[in-house]
Amino acid sequence: MNLYSLAKKFGTEEAALLHLIKMRWPNGVRCLACDHDKVYLIETKGKTGKVARLFECADCGLHFSATTNTLFHDSHLPLTKWFAAISLMVDGKKGISASQLGRHIGMTYKTAWHVCHRIREAMQEPKSFKIGGESVTVEIDETFVGGRKRGVGVKAGRDAKTIVIGMAERSGRIHLKTVKSRLAKDMKPVIDDKLRSTTKEVVTDALRTYQYVIPKEKHNRTSHKEELNDKNWTSTQTVENAFSLFKRGIIGNYHQLSREHLDRYLGEFCWRYNRRKMQPWLFEMTLTNMLNKKPLPYKDLTF
């Protein structure tokens, strides 16, 4: 949903709140504590003097809002701004930085950064997500993410970068994840966790590590010099294209990413990439995930 359509549909805070309530409780509001169906909408004033709309349970007396125990929890930001932020993040093919989001919507960098990470939390694949299948060819490769360091030597500069392993179905889905090294002990757990055992073929470059983590009968080692063979891919071009797209997002939008939060950005990128043919529904999908996931306090994001 683009910003123009968003403004027409959710032009007021009341319209946004009503939509959120209907999405969270399609069969009617129920108490979060005792699951009672008798709840009443009340208005009260918070510490800042702003009017807050809450639900009161007729059975246990619990007061709760439409955003309680969700990724919106404890936010004083209007829902109209939240909706605009979600729209901008799901529509940005290469992502959007917190500073840019803050300029577009009107909020401080700290608030924008927290908002981005909470939306990013909703744009993550489930733990059960896997790559490959019986008739699927999967490409696996690795890349280095991070800026250059001058005056420290080539090895020290490379050690300062973060290694990212990539798995990509040809014309399908991808999975990117940071690893400590290119050794089998660090790469094998990621591959075993996300690669389906029934995968037809796994294509990699000549890195020797892959010989120890991928079954020999499925493994196809190839050279980067060979791009096409009888009009069939024989290289890791698909996953390399995904790496390139992600890095262009870093250069053009973020400029630099911290090692501690890199997996969150990789997850957001993969989630959006894997749903690239579902663009009209990404806003509602993200909104649903935000209502179904637990709160993400600011202190949990800072180390």
Automatic annotation (TrEMBL):
Signal peptide: none
InterPro entries, A to Z: IS1016-like_transposase (IPR053164), Tnp_ISXO2-like (IPR024445), Transposase_Zn_ribbon (IPR024442)
Top-level taxon in the UniProt lineage: Bacteria
Domain (ISXO2-like transposase) ranges: 130-274
Residues passing through the membrane, by range: none
Pfam families: DDE_Tnp_IS1595 (PF12762), Zn_ribbon_IS1595 (PF12760)
Protein's name in the database: IS1595 family transposase
